[in-house]
Design a protein that fits this description.
By secondary structure, this protein is of the alpha/beta class. The chain is built from 21 helices and 12 strands.
């Protein structure tokens, strides 16, 4: 067996104590150039958008002062020529304003799509690396809510919200600087008086809204979880006539979501009227005191006209802060959940030894292995097991004895608490995780088929398989006969989770999938537990063919399916209590013999 060393993959450490916006910016650092481009065009567009008030003020200045106007001081004294120049400048400004708007709109939206795409892929890929324990603690609905709803929520903010914040901030800076240059200091202070209150109120509002939208995102994840579970178990709901019960439970979750959203809406709706009153103070102060300053000659009528329009253009958009902060807090609540998922630690670390799967012999050793699930008593207790290569061993025992857990440990769905597991003498924790799993074929009791054709499901994991190879694998699994009788044959759509097929048909497709994979190690976890006798016989014939010259671990309740195994182990409470061939175990007249007598007796009664 050829082995090579690789650098282990280490997940990045992220600080989940940072503000969600900072965490999002850190993530989006790869798009820094695009962010700067979008920000620059947003600022340029804001500057150009504020030009019309100055153009209006200049026009008033021309009419009032004529040969003494601002443009006249540039050497153009004729009123007609002044208005001609002003018109030309207006056209140029309008053209560049339109171009800058197109630029920032396109870049922000493109950036939103890029970040959304990257986040969804990175988050999904990270989820795939998490161990099985994580999925036992997290609902599918919650994960779907993060991967879909929360990431889409960010898109809405990046499309419009980020640009709105930049443009309003730029406008306020220009208003403040412009007012100080044009107005007397006393008037400027009166006009700017509402600004500190607006800023303070905005940040206070943001903090209060943050907690409410975090609650909203949690409630929607509970709702999604309920919907996902109910749709998956719709036949169970129908068979137990539990439609009213489930409808009431869904109504409860939906009501909780509605109430949390209503609480956030109450706070959000109150913000705009309050800001409107503060804006009114600044505008009225300018209207009165600025008008008096123009009347007494402290400022020109043109400058007064500019400031009136400018304040109207700058202060009134502040009332949209409520909507902007609403989008912002919804997005930050979603960003927190996304980043927390990305921060979830990867406990199953890939090893640094690569395997050439074709050269794996398949000799397996469990040495003093102990394992317990989180906060539970050990399921496996100092268990040792030697499986020679190319041999078939079977493990039987009562439900909960730990049989299937051994399979999960071998595939490293979980890592052992103590001891070692080796394949061909190499500790599996040191092996490249993908190479380890490529070396093992699993046919489980709970067959999962993806929505797609039968051919696609057989070739799953062996994606470059030819049609001839797919058909050959199906024939070995004794699936070809029922497949060709279907209307579309191998192109028949199996439905979600394979619901259009019977349990026996799904089982044979799973076996064909394992045959096509052609692994050196094969695991059969209750592969015939849910099929009828005829299907069991067909599956048994196919298993006899595919287990030849291959290390095989068979876990079974039906003892008839494993009676020909090279060695049978009886497992109770995480330990092996008996072992031997079928005949020797019957001679011992122990637990195995008792199980065999019960099952064979039941068959005779039938």
């Amino acid at each position: 067996m050829t082995i090579t060393s690789q650098s282990p993959k280490v997940s990045k450490n992220r600080s989940n104590s940072a503000h969600p916006l900072q965490r999002l910016l850190n993530y989006g650092s790869q798009y820094r150039q695009q962010i700067w481009q979008a920000t620059t065009f947003s600022i340029i567009n804001t500057l150009l958008d504020l030009a019309p008030p100055w153009l209006i003020g200049t026009a008033v200045d021309i009419l009032v002062k004529q040969q003494d106007s601002l443009i006249a001081k540039l050497g153009i004294r004729d009123v007609f020529s002044q208005f001609l120049l002003l018109s030309f400048v207006t056209v140029i400004i309008w053209i560049f304003e339109s171009l800058s708007q197109y630029a920032y709109d396109r870049i922000w939206r493109s950036l939103a799509q890029n970040i959304q795409h990257s986040l969804r892929l990175d988050t999904y890929n990270h989820v795939q690396e998490l161990d099985s324990a994580y999925f036992e603690e997290s609902s599918t609905g919650r994960l779907m809510s993060i991967l879909n709803d929360d990431i889409n929520q960010l898109e809405d903010f990046l499309n419009f919200g980020a640009n709105d914040i930049i443009q309003i901030s730029t406008s306020l800076i220009i208003l403040t600087v412009g007012a100080f240059f044009v107005l007397p200091p006393s008037i400027t202070l009166v006009v700017m008086l509402p600004m500190p209150f607006i800023v303070w109120g905005s940040f206070t509002y943001q903090k209060r809204l943050e907690a409410r939208y975090a609650e909203v995102r949690e409630k929607v994840s509970f709702l999604n979880s309920r919907l996902a579970n109910n749709l998956s178990g719709i036949n169970t709901i129908k068979s137990f006539t539990a439609e009213d019960y489930e409808s009431a439970r869904l109504a409860g979750d939906s009501e909780a979501y509605r109430k949390s959203n209503t609480k956030a809406i109450k706070l959000s709706a109150a913000f705009v009227p309050l800001i409107r009153m503060l804006v009114l103070v600044g505008f009225t102060a300018l209207l009165f005191w600025g008008g008096m300053a123009a009347y007494t000659g402290q400022i020109s009528i043109g400058n007064y006209s500019v400031l009136l329009v400018l304040v109207q253009r700058l202060l009134w958009p502040l009332v949209t802060l409520g909507e902007i902060f609403d989008k912002y807090q919804r997005s930050m609540a979603s960003a927190n959940r996304i980043m927390d998922l990305l921060d979830a630690p990867i406990n199953i670390i890939r090893g640094n030894i690569s395997l050439n799967v074709a050269q794996v012999r398949g000799e397996i050793d469990f040495k003093q292995v102990t394992f317990s699930y989180l906060n539970r008593e050990p399921v496996i207790k100092k268990l040792s097991l030697h499986i020679p290569y190319s041999k078939t061993i079977a493990i039987v025992g009562s439900t909960g004895s730990g049989k299937s857990t051994l399979v999960k440990l071998l595939l490293r769905f979980y890592d052992i608490s103590s001891g070692t597991i080796t394949i061909d003498g190499i500790d599996i924790q040191k092996l490249n995780l993908r190479d380890l799993r490529r070396s093992i074929g699993l046919v489980s009791q709970d067959v999962f088929l993806f929505h797609g054709t039968i051919a696609e499901n057989i070739a799953y994991g062996t994606f470059d398989a030819t049609d001839q190879q797919i058909i050959a694998a199906a024939k070995i699994a004794e699936a070809d006969d029922f497949i060709i009788r279907l209307p579309q044959g191998y192109e028949t759509i199996v439905g979600e989770r394979g619901q259009k097929l019977s349990g026996g048909q799904r089982q044979r497709i799973a076996i064909a999938r394992a045959v096509l994979k052609n692994p050196p190690i094969l695991i059969l976890d209750e592969a015939t537990s849910a099929v009828d006798n005829e299907t069991e016989a067909a599956i048994q014939r196919s298993l006899e063919r595919i287990t030849a010259n291959r290390t095989t671990i068979a876990i079974a309740h039906r003892l008839s399916t494993i009676r020909n195994a090279d060695c049978i182990y009886v497992m109770e409470y995480g330990e092996f209590v008996e072992s031997g061939t079928h005949e020797k175990l019957l001679e011992k007249n122990g637990i195995y013999a008792g199980l065999w007598n019960v099952q064979s007796g039941m068959k005779n009664l039938g």
